[in-house]
Design a protein that fits this description.
This protein is α/β, with parallel strands linked by helices and about 260 residues long. It has nine helices and seven strands; from the N terminus they run H-E-E-E-H-E-H-E-H-E-H-H-H-H-H-E.
């Protein structure tokens, strides 16, 4: 795989490897709180005191992702971590056509249930995508928004060098992923393993196998969705005055060029 799509693949592979390496948990399984929200339940934890800071994990991940960030962040904030709708340890029934739009509605319900009127929100990958959709729809509920690599695939045609990348991704990755999951979960996981690691699921570390299995349901729901990567209006994003870059050397508000 070459060109921009190949670069996306390599970056994704590296990020997931780092994410899973950071996930090696040696302590006993913690107890999670439950947010009962009608037909769905989200598991979450809170740490520290202060202004609320909500951390939203990415795909093939869950609330455990933030283990190493919590000690430092909770010194100054009330840190709130939760697992998105179809991620470990949640068990929620599929509703069809899953996307960041659904996840953003879940976040609104979650904040309402916890009586959080306004929060700092930090999201990674699909969690960043969710956070951005939420902020665009409910800017009055966000103090500061920090995004790390939201997969805004529909923006690619508007970016230099982005023409054709989305189409290639859909044909080479997303459609085959859905077909694999239509056969069974094992085939879906094997396709995912080949895409990320270049080898079959049976060849990767057993701990990694368990981690991918834990979060396979979300991956499957997104693969089956009619629009897993909905367009986010760039004009509305430009109007957000609380969106910051995640790069340490660029602690400035993000500015979009026309």
């Amino acid at each position: 795989m070459t060109g921009p799509l190949g670069i996306l693949h390599l970056i994704g592979k590296a990020l997931v490897w780092i994410m899973i390496m950071a996930f090696r948990i040696t302590m006993a399984q913690p107890e999670y709180k439950k947010a009962e929200m009608g037909e769905i339940t989200l598991h979450y934890q809170t740490f520290g005191v202060g202004a609320p800071l909500i951390l939203i994990h990415g795909s093939l991940s869950d609330l455990r992702y933030w283990e190493h960030q919590i000690p430092e962040l909770s010194k100054n904030f009330q840190v709130i971590i939760y697992s998105r709708r179809y991620n470990f340890p949640n068990i929620n029934a599929p509703t069809g056509n899953h996307s960041a739009l659904v996840e953003a509605r879940d976040l609104l319900q979650f904040m309402d249930l916890l009586e959080i009127k306004k929060a700092h929100i930090l999201g990674h990958s699909y969690g960043a995508y969710t956070a951005l959709v939420f902020a665009v729809d409910h800017p009055h509920r966000v103090k500061n928004l920090i995004l790390a690599e939201p997969p805004l695939m529909k923006w690619l045609p508007e970016i230099p060098g982005g023409n054709g990348v989305l189409e290639d991704f859909v044909e080479e990755v997303w459609k085959p992923l859905a077909e694999a999951y239509k056969k069974d979960e094992a085939t879906g996981l094997d396709f995912t393993s080949h895409w990320y690691y270049g080898t079959g699921f049976e060849n990767i570390d057993s701990e990694f196998q368990g981690f991918l299995k834990d979060n396979s349901q979300e991956w499957k729901e997104l693969a089956f969705s009619e629009d897993a990567y909905p367009y986010v209006d760039t004009d509305k994003v430009r109007r957000l005055d609380f969106l910051y870059s995640c790069f340490p050397e660029k602690k400035i508000k993000i500015v979009f060029s026309n």
